[in-house]
Design goal:
This protein is of the alpha/beta class and about 280 residues long. It has helices spanning about 70-75, 105-115, 130-140, 145-160, 175-185, 205-215, 230-235, and strands at about 5, 10-15, 30-40, 45-55, 60, 85-90, 95-100, 115-120, 190-195, 225-230, 240-245, 250, 280-285. The structure holds adenosine-5'-triphosphate. Adenosine-5'-triphosphate binds near residues 45 and 70. GO terms for molecular function: ATP binding; ATP hydrolysis activity; transmembrane transporter activity.
Amino acid sequence: MNTTPHDSGTPIPAPPVAPPHPGPAGVQPLLQATNLVKTYPGAHALRGVSIGVSRGQALAIMGPSGSGKTMLLHCLAGLITPDAGTVAFQPGGGPPVQVSTLDRRERARLRRESFGFVFQQGLLMPELTAVENIAVAGMLGGMKRQVAFAAAMDWLHSLGLEAHAGKRIGQLSGGQAQRVAVARSQITSPEITFADEPTGALDSHTSHEVMSILLASTAGAGRALVVVTHDPHVAARAHHRIHVRDGLIDDGKAQGTARVDGTAHVGGAAGVDGVGGAAGVEGAA
Ligand SMILES: Nc1ncnc2c1ncn2[C@@H]1O[C@H](COP(=O)(O)OP(=O)(O)OP(=O)(O)O)[C@@H](O)[C@H]1O
């Protein structure tokens, strides 16, 4: 029997393997996850999710609390290794990378150099100033110190925050701090940015502004954004939306019921990029 590893040692039947989402004709998705499964004792966090994200696209992941949104984001970003399934990243000009088979060090390097992260809070270092927070991310991504600080100041300038460059994070408003977090995530121009509730702590006006900056520097610049959000206004601004429920992409056919077969995920001919009738995917193409 096809099984997946389980922390308790009890084999759990794996969902049937679905073919990967093909993406738009002739276009290799920037990131392609196929049949992701992640199980914890007592929790089937992901039960077979396949999804592709292309350049120039923003994908919103929605769903109820505990449905598996963050788990999916973390698997896509190489922060968590799935029990089964694959994540393939196609860097610009390089060979494809199987994120899920990289060792910890390689994954950390990939995240530093090619991925950007924005979380609701927690990524900024309170003991550093705004400009230092941004510049450090540049240096970790391989920039020389002087270049990183100049780029960080450029970012602060474009965000209207140059007067706050020397302030520590605790001296900034929530919206200012989150703009610094976006700049921090974007200073290396990552090919794909992962954001988990990036506007969760902001009022609606500031939320709109922060999303505008994030969208412009990711999908708007030919790169990609994957954003987990509860906010329908945020999700509405993405090119595509998926709804996760009980560790599966919800195709809307079983609202309010727990899925039992583990087969309802985006795969095969289902489209994420407006190229087919997607299960659980709304496209704005
Ligand atoms: N480290 C862990 N150990 C055990 N179970 C976990 C762990 N991380 C997540 N889970 C479980 O996996 C499921 C999915 O969690 P996840 O954090 O992805 O939910 P979510 O949709 O992001 O929820 P929320 O909107 O509340 O943040 C939940 O049942 C959760 O309890």
